[in-house]
């Protein structure tokens, strides 16, 4: 009998580290030859252009609100235009001495939006709080009470108007979109046809046409002497436009739910609305969170189109601030970069929040 001899097994290489900065760079920037080549090309372009950009934006820039100094510099950005015109850009044509009112109103509405995104505030009293904040917002903006002078809605503008139009449009468009999406899948021909016509009609025209109709054509069909404020008409137009697009996003999620789940719910004796509320909608909405948030971001950016009806939101207020002053008119690019930064910060925040919601909503499927 041959005795078994012990033979040592050769040491295996250590596992590859998949966490940390070095691992991320190796995987995402140096993964293969094409990725590595693209990384070096982009890095070379950045090394070439980044110093020039920094020289223009920072090192040689003019920061003082002095138009003559900006012209004398000639090689750098003129951020002094922001220091000089920021109040007109942010608040539009709102009376200068009363601009504390839109500031407080915007802070209240923004705080309400942030609170609504935090789970601990998802309570029944949140609806009441929304009503109170909106009442406070319109009271501060319009005035004519509590000793405040009246400011007509056509003088509202800048960031407060942008946030107001975007937030109210999003809040009102979502339930309409939900109802239309369910209506398009209804077994009742009248409801299904009405919802289909609404979606195809609204999606068949650009938002500018909707705003033009709401602002200029709609009053022609109203009885003589009866008028609706232009802000309300524009708000309704944006809401209906956004609801049509959002309804199709939600309908895509509804179609992704297996039919067997609905049949199983019917077998258990659940009604139509119980099935939708407890089984179908939670899954469908979780699937289309990216599409819904994409629509929300689109609504926020589309508010810039209300300038066509003489409502000067953030973009329109910038044009109003610079076009009316020949000294600062040559420095539009700095102004547009300023409002682009505001749009980017808000849209990026919405995008990151969307990722958090998507992760929370899909926890059950990731187990």
Written overview of the protein:
With 367 residues, the protein is mostly helical. Among the domains are: 91-151; 177-366, MetI-like (MetI-like fold). It is built from 16 helices and no strands. Helix 7 packs antiparallel against helix 8 (189-203) and helix 9 runs antiparallel to helix 10. The two termini are 54 Å apart. 27% of the residues are buried. The model has no long low-confidence stretch (mean pLDDT 88).
Quick summary:
The chain has helices at 21-28, 33-59, 67-73, 80-91, 100-116, 125-142, 158-184, 189-203, 207-217, 230-255, 259-267, 272-287, 289-302, 314-323, 332-361, 363-366. By secondary structure, it is an all-alpha fold.
Strand tally is 0
**What structural class results from the helix and strand content?**
mainly alpha
User: Helix fraction?
Assistant: 55-70%
How much of the polypeptide forms β-strand, as a percent range?
under 5%
Low-confidence stretches: none
Can you count the helices? Answer: 16
CATH class of the domain at 177-366: Mainly Alpha
Compute the CA-based radius of gyration: 28 Å
Major β-sheet profile: none
The topology string of helices and strands comes to: HHHHHHHHHHHHHHHH
Query: What is the CATH topology assignment of the domain at 177-366?
Result: MetI-like fold
What is the second-level CATH architecture of the domain at 177-366? Orthogonal Bundle
Mean pLDDT score:
88
Distance between the termini: 54 Å
Write out the CATH superfamily name of the domain at 177-366.
Answer: MetI-like
Shape: flat
């Amino acid at each position: 009998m041959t005795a078994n001899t012990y033979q040592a097994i050769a040491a295996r290489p250590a596992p590859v580290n998949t966490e940390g900065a070095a691992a991320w760079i190796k995987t995402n920037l140096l993964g293969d030859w094409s990725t590595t080549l693209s990384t070096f090309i982009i890095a070379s372009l950045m090394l070439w252009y980044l110093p020039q950009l920094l020289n223009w934006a920072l090192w040689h820039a003019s920061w003082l609100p002095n138009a003559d100094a900006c012209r004398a510099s000639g090689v750098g950005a003129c951020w002094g235009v922001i220091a000089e015109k920021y109040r007109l850009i942010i608040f539009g044509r709102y009376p200068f001495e009363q601009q504390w009112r839109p500031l407080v109103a915007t802070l209240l509405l923004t705080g309400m939006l942030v609170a609504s995104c935090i789970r601990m505030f998802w309570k029944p009293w949140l609806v009441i709080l929304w009503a109170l904040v909106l009442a406070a917002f319109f009271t501060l903006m319009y005035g004519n009470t509590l000793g405040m002078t009246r400011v007509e809605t056509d003088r509202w503008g800048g960031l407060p108007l942008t946030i107001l139009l975007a937030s109210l449009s999003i809040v009102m468009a979502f339930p309409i979109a939900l109802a239309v999406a369910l209506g398009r899948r209804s077994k009742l021909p009248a409801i299904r046809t009405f919802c289909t016509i609404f979606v195809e009609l609204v999606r068949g025209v650009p938002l500018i046409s909707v705003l033009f109709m709401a602002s200029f054509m709609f009053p022609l069909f109203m009885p003589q002497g009866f008028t609706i404020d232009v802000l309300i008409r524009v708000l309704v137009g944006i809401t209906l436009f956004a609801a049509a697009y959002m309804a199709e996003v939600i309908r895509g999620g509804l179609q992704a739910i297996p039919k067997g789940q609905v049949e199983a719910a019917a077998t258990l004796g659940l009604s139509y609305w119980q099935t939708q509320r407890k089984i179908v909608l939670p899954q469908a909405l979780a699937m289309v969170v990216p599409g819904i948030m994409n629509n929300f971001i689109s609504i926020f950016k589309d508010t810039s189109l209300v300038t066509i009806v003489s409502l000067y939101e953030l973009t329109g207020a910038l044009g109003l601030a610079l076009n009316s002053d020949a000294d600062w008119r040559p420095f539009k690019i700095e102004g547009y970069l300023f409002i682009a930064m505001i749009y980017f910060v808000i849209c990026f925040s919405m995008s990151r929040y969307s990722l958090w919601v998507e992760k929370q909503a899909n926890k059950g499927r990731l187990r």
